[in-house]
Amino acid sequence: MSPRWNPNPDVRTGRHVVYNLHVHLVFVTKYRRGAMTGEMLTRCEEIMREVCEDFEAELKQFNGEEDHVHLLVHYPPKVQLSKLVNSLKGVSSRYLRKEYDAHVRRYLWGGHFWSGSYFAGSCGGAPLTVVRQYIENQQRPV
């Protein structure tokens, strides 16, 4: 899509699709232990940015604290969200445990870094009430 047709850079195109999909993800450390340092958060962002690129997704925003991280990811419709999440958590866990082994072992044990659960919330676009109203107001052919 040329810029004159698409003033919103978040609206992307594929061969047979036009999309704008964003997800807010939250990952919590195992046992909600405060294992993350500022340096680890910086490294975690780098790792997760690379994983997103492997999925042809974009890590738009990243931040976190000692016991959790927040991500805003723009992803294509061909990406299965659960696979992206598993890869983000798995790859970051491996690298963070390997690179910060002594520190991580003080807080976490058993080979785990992240909790098994996560939060995923769709975001962006119009509020649901506006979308519902738009669909409701479509004119049916006579």
From TrEMBL:
- Name the SMART domains on file: Y1_Tnp
Which InterPro entries does this entry report, sorted A to Z?
Transposase_17, Transposase_17_sf
* Ranges where the Transposase IS200-like domain occurs: 18-138
The molecule here is called IS200/IS605 family transposase
Origin organism is: Streptomyces cinnabarinus
Name of the gene this protein is made from: tnpA
